[in-house]
Amino acid sequence: MGYNFDDCVEYVRALAKKSVCKRRGVACMIINKVSGETLSWSTNGPAGDVPELCSGIKDGCGCIHSEVNTILKARNTGPCLRDRRAVMIATRAPCVPCASAIVNCGYIGEFIYLDPSEPGADGLAMLRRFGIQVRHHNDGKSDQQLKASAV
Ligand SMILES: [Zn+2]
Ligand SMILES: [Zn+2]
Questions:
Q1: 61 CA to middle of ligand 1, Å?
Q2: Are 107 and 86 within 8 A, CB to CB?
Q3: Could you tell me where the beta strands, DSSP code E, fall in the chain?
């Protein structure tokens, strides 16, 4: 049981490059830690993924963040999970509004981010405040830890 963490990391990284947002590419996926089932995955981006709807303006390109997009796409599966047994893997640390969405969706108990260079300390603090486990992924080193925690 469980899931292949390295495969997920590879997938999320590749997915981020497919975002149609002109500002940056970010991606997430949500996985049931117990069954290994992938619930959803998504990039950041505009409504309907229509490229013209991203204005490209630095602080307001109009795109929805990948965390919220991924939660929306898990709307039929995520809410059925018990015990906050889902993990979200994201290419970067979340902003505060996205961290709030992760808390409020009610089924994510762990958050793993891949890119340490992005600011997101306030979002991570918000997750921790509500008891969500936060990890930074070090390539090639987290697999064991993750398997241990996925029981
Ligand atoms: Zn955009
Ligand atoms: Zn965000």
A1: 4
A2: yes
A3: 27-32, 38-43, 86-92, 108-115, 133-136
The two three-digit tokens of residue 39, written as one number:
């619930």
Three-state DSSP class for residue 38: strand
pLDDT band for position 117 (50/70/90)?
Answer: low
d(CA 58, ligand 1 centre) in Å? 9
Those residues whose beta carbon sits under 5 angstroms from the ion ligand 2 are 65, 95, 98
**CATH topology for the 5-150 domain:** Cytidine Deaminase; domain 2 (3.40.140)
Tens of pLDDT, residues 57-102: 987 899 999 999 999 999 999 999 999 999 999 999 999 999 999 9
CA of 34 to the centre of ligand 2 (A): 26
Q: Among all ligands shown, which has an atom nearest to the Cα of 47?
A: 1
Q: Of the ligands numbered here, which is closest to the C-alpha atom of 120?
A: 2
Whether 105 shows a pLDDT value over 90: the answer reads: yes
The mean predicted confidence, pLDDT, of the chain is 90
